[in-house]
Specification:
- The structure holds two protein chains of two kinds.
- Chain A is an all-alpha fold.
- Chain A has a single domain, classed as Helix Hairpins (Orthogonal Bundle), CATH 1.10.287.
- Chain A has three helices and no strands.
- In chain A, helix 1 runs antiparallel to helix 2 and helix 2 packs antiparallel against helix 3.
- Chain A starts with 5 loop residues before the first helix and ends in a 13-residue tail after the last helix.
- Chain B has six helices and no strands.
- Chain B is globular and about 60 Å long.
- The N and C termini of chain B lie far apart (about 65 Å).
- The mean pLDDT of chain B is about 85.
- The chains are: A mainly alpha, B mainly alpha.
- At the A-B interface, helix 1, helix 2 and helix 3 of A face helix 1, helix 2, helix 3, helix 4 and helix 5 of B.
């Protein structure tokens, strides 16, 4: 039973992080942008848990729980914003939401 | 050997479905791919002996947040977006930025070498009773952050209700 090296977990975390960044930067649909943010948060969580296991300490997992709490709060407020936005502007495309652009 | 095989299968599933999340045109398909990714990440937590976090991932992320996403996707009319352009106009700039980030991370990996020069981990057996250890840490060392997180959740709850309300009085 050889354990998996920590490098591999960090590599997986960075791959998921880059995919999430590409999603945030390229997609037009606000909902998919929020989902990409969830991907990024998961990548961070993998890193936290991997190093927590490496150092035999539980603190990283506690931080991961706080990150999940933040993700829940962010999703609730973000989706509420999207509903309010859709009611007023009839769109979910990020580049059509330009009321503050002159 | 077995953990390594499980790791590779789980990470392949996670990365492929993560790519599906950002490339599918239909947002419902994106959500289903994201659920697969979250389950795969939960499996990674199990590999890392973080059983409590696996349960939190499944119950809170897949059971809570993703259902919330699905509700909003159903509320928001999607038929129009299916025929519109999927990516925005500055996607070339975005791809260049992502490539730069990729190069930066590759440089860090290359320079870090094996193990990133981390100090040796403390030897000894793997800690048992994962849930008990997390509970002890949460309610002893991290008492104040837990309270702040509860306040954050309260604010988020009030904020979400206020945002989604039809009219402010």
């Amino acid at each position: 039973m050889t354990p998996v090296p920590t490098d591999y977990y960090v590599f997986l975390g960075s791959a998921l992080f880059i995919i999430g960044v590409v999603g945030v930067l390229t997609r037009r649909n606000v909902l998919v942008i929020l989902m990409s943010i969830e991907l990024i948060l998961n990548a961070v969580n993998i890193n936290l848990v991997a190093f927590s296991q490496y150092f035999r300490a539980v603190d990283g997992q506690v931080f991961a729980i706080f990150v999940i709490t933040d993700a829940a709060a962010e999703a609730a407020v973000g989706l509420g914003l999207i509903i309010a936005l859709f009611r007023n502007k009839e769109t979910v495309n990020a580049d059509e939401i330009d009321l503050l652009k002159w | 050997m077995l953990p390594l095989i499980a790791f590779f299968i789980l990470s392949a599933v996670a990365i492929v479905s993560a790519i599906l999340v950002i490339t599918r045109r239909n947002a419902v398909h994106s959500i289903i791919a994201l659920i697969v990714t979250l389950f795969a990440v939960g499996g990674i937590y199990l590999l890392l002996h973080a059983e409590f976090l696996f349960a939190v991932q499944v119950i809170l992320y897949v059971g809570g947040i993703m259902v919330l996403f699905l509700f909003v996707v159903m509320l928001v009319n999607l038929d129009v977006t299916l025929t519109q352009a999927q990516f925005n106009r500055q996607w070339q700039v975005a791809v260049v930025t992502a490539g730069l980030l990729c190069g930066l991370l590759a440089y860090a990996f290359y320079n870090g070498g094996r193990g990133f020069g981390l100090p040796q981990p403390p030897l000894g057996p793997e800690p048992q009773h994962n849930t008990q250890a997390i509970g002890m840490a949460l309610y002893q060392n991290y008492m104040l952050p837990v309270e702040i997180a509860s306040l954050l959740l309260l604010v988020a709850m009030v904020g979400a209700v206020l945002m989604a309300k039809r009219k402010l009085e």
